[in-house]
Design a protein that fits this description.
Globin-like, 69% helix, mainly alpha
């Protein structure tokens, strides 16, 4: 059942297009650390993303999610310290979107006890895309949404009953 505030989430044609474009433009060959830093710089330049933008996205998303009738109760039951959770999620998004390497937990394990269903991931993507549309550049939106869609697909396949 489609949620009352649902919007159609646009699927990027090539979810890794931006990452591949940046990777192809990086000429640093010295070592893995230099190459990673150059890739991260390229992603920041092309998307406008930085920690401040990711903090806005995370804060705005959770403000929406906490009020959502489908997602809010799940978060309320499992998140006791919102400040710590949001800081952890900024680290997560910085790691997956900007190669920051600050998140070192197992996302699959973190979601296992939540009894999630397919519809929860659909709603998460809808709210996340609404948040991105309001908070970041179109390039950042496409980049983050592509990552979110890959995450949702992986978690759906591993956590949801068929």
């Amino acid at each position: 059942m489609k949620h009352a505030t649902a919007v159609d989430v646009q699927t990027p044609q090539d979810p890794l297009n931006l990452y591949h474009a940046v990777r192809e433009s990086v000429t640093v060959q010295d070592d893995a650390g230099s190459r990673r830093a150059a890739l991260a710089d390229g992603l920041r330049q092309r998307t406008g993303l930085d920690d401040a933008a990711l903090q806005r996205v995370v804060h705005s998303f959770y403000a929406r999610a906490r009020l959502d009738p489908d997602l809010g109760p799940i978060f309320a039951a499992h998140v006791a310290d919102w400040q710590a959770h949001e800081a952890r999620m900024v680290d997560f998004w910085a790691s997956v979107a900007l190669l920051a390497g600050r998140y070192h937990r197992n996302a699959l394990q973190a979601h296992k006890p939540l009894d999630l269903r397919q519809a929860h991931f659909t709603r998460w993507l809808e709210l996340f895309d609404q948040t991105l549309a309001a908070e970041v550049t179109p390039q950042a939106r496409e980049h983050l949404l592509a990552i979110a869609q890959r995450i949702a697909t992986t978690l759906r396949h591993r956590l949801c009953p068929r």
